[in-house]
Amino acid sequence: MSGAAILINAAISGAAYCMTVRMIPRFREMFIKANLFGNDLCKKDKPQVPESFGVLIGCVFLVSLFMFIPVPFAFDEAAATDAVTGGKPDTFPHDKFVELIAALLSICCMIFLGFADDVLDLRWRHKLLLPTIATLPLLMVYYVNYNSTTVIMPNFARAIFGTSLNIGVLYYIFMGMLAVFCTNAINILAGINGLEVGQSLIIAGSILLFNSIELFLGHQVDSHIFSIYFMLPFLATTLALWKFNQYPSQVFVGDTYCYFAGMTFAVVGILGHFSKTLLLFFLPQILNFLYSTPQLFHFVPCPRHRLPKYDNKTDLLHISTTEFKLEDLNAPGRLMVTVLRKLRLISWHTKADGLVRTNNFTLINFVLVVFGPVHERVVTQMLMGFQVLCTLIALAIRYPLANYFYAET
């Protein structure tokens, strides 16, 4: 009866979409009066735009799933025995119930912490610590219900490690780091109208497509149904937010939405048992993280904001820059910028005094390095197109290539 539960979930998601579309315009003035707004620096008139709307979207998402909690268990064959016996069934699926509640708890914690970041402007070390704390309910449930830390080895490594390898506590460290990465990766690749919500829409759609393929193949049915329960309302509320966040943005989403989206993806990846496939859908975010590494870890000077510069005269975005002297960098920093320069992945201008000016190391700026000054809407479209391309690459890796490397010997 899982099909009926999915249909009810879809109906609730549709209602969540309609509710979100109606609520966003009504809350805009309320957020501005509460000083939760920012200026859109990539517009000629620098309009005031209410921000931190991720908290509103997250609340609608949570209410949707709170309403859905009884549904999958009402259709569960074990729970259905309650109608016959008149009492509580002995075989009630407590493990599934706890999974659902723990997942909602982790997402709820991350929405709260994200809103705290928007209001209090937390430091980066806190942004790394908070997702780790919010992931603890997930890891505890995974330990109690599964505690499977065995990794299947690819064919070329089986001669050394065997068919599988139990990595123990390292698997839990990996899952904790996955949550930290997902919550921050979207936040790092952000800053122009519609980009945070656009990439989240594509990732959510990619996960739903993957879930559907796996259900068709009959692989881990319960895990992928669990993922669909979360992805449908997330996709619905995010699609409603997209109507107001796409260029020109009427609302900003804030760090709250980035944390909420990242934790939702981490939840379904961990409890749905496809964490490695989830990372494949994050290929643009991984590339952006690797490209940003010299500045994120301060091997190269990193300004507070790395957004592109806006030209009032042409209404186009230009690269934002950072300056340094090559000899002032430490050895790893010099090596990184030299490699990036040789590969022509960064701009490079040397002044008479030896000061080097180069673009800030973000995927947004890289698009401007390659294509020159571009309109903000076009940059978002390019990056969303790249996200779709990476989804196709991810599915190719997950199926034809994975079947080759993990073929039975």
Automatic annotation (TrEMBL):
Transmembrane residue ranges: 6-24, 53-75, 97-116, 128-145, 165-189, 225-244, 256-274, 280-300, 354-372, 378-397
The pathway entry for this protein reads as:
Protein modification; protein glycosylation
Q: Name one GO biological process term.
A: dolichol-linked oligosaccharide biosynthetic process
User: Which superkingdom does the taxonomy of this entry point to?
Assistant: Eukaryota
Q: Which InterPro entries match?
A: Glycosyl_transferase_4 (IPR000715), GPT (IPR033895)
Q: Where is this gene product found? A: Endoplasmic reticulum membrane
Catalyzed chemical reaction(s):
a di-trans,poly-cis-dolichyl phosphate + UDP-N-acetyl-alpha-D-glucosamine = an N-acetyl-alpha-D-glucosaminyl-diphospho-di-trans,poly-cis-dolichol + UMP
UniProt KW keywords: Endoplasmic reticulum, Glycosyltransferase, Magnesium, Membrane, Metal-binding, Transferase, Transmembrane, Transmembrane helix
**EC numbers on record:** 2.7.8.15
GO cellular component terms listed in the entry, alphabetical order:
endoplasmic reticulum membrane
Cofactor(s) recorded for this entry are: Mg(2+)
CDD domains in the record: GT_GPT_euk (cd06855)
Record GO terms (molecular function): glycosyltransferase activity; metal ion binding; UDP-N-acetylglucosamine-dolichyl-phosphate N-acetylglucosaminephosphotransferase activity
Q: How does it sit in the membrane?
A: Multi-pass membrane protein
Q: Which PANTHER family match?
A: UDP-N-ACETYLGLUCOSAMINE--DOLICHYL-PHOSPHATE N-ACETYLGLUCOSAMINEPHOSPHOTRANSFERASE
Which family, according to the similarity comment? Belongs to the glycosyltransferase 4 family.
Its biological purpose is as follows: UDP-N-acetylglucosamine--dolichyl-phosphate N-acetylglucosaminephosphotransferase that operates in the biosynthetic pathway of dolichol-linked oligosaccharides, the glycan precursors employed in protein asparagine (N)-glycosylation. The assembly of dolichol-linked oligosaccharides begins on the cytosolic side of the endoplasmic reticulum membrane and finishes in its lumen. The sequential addition of sugars to dolichol pyrophosphate produces dolichol-linked oligosaccharides containing fourteen sugars, including two GlcNAcs, nine mannoses and three glucoses.
Q: Could you tell me what this protein is called?
A: UDP-N-acetylglucosamine--dolichyl-phosphate N-acetylglucosaminephosphotransferase
Q: What lineage does UniProt assign to this protein's organism?
A: Eukaryota, Metazoa, Ecdysozoa, Arthropoda, Hexapoda
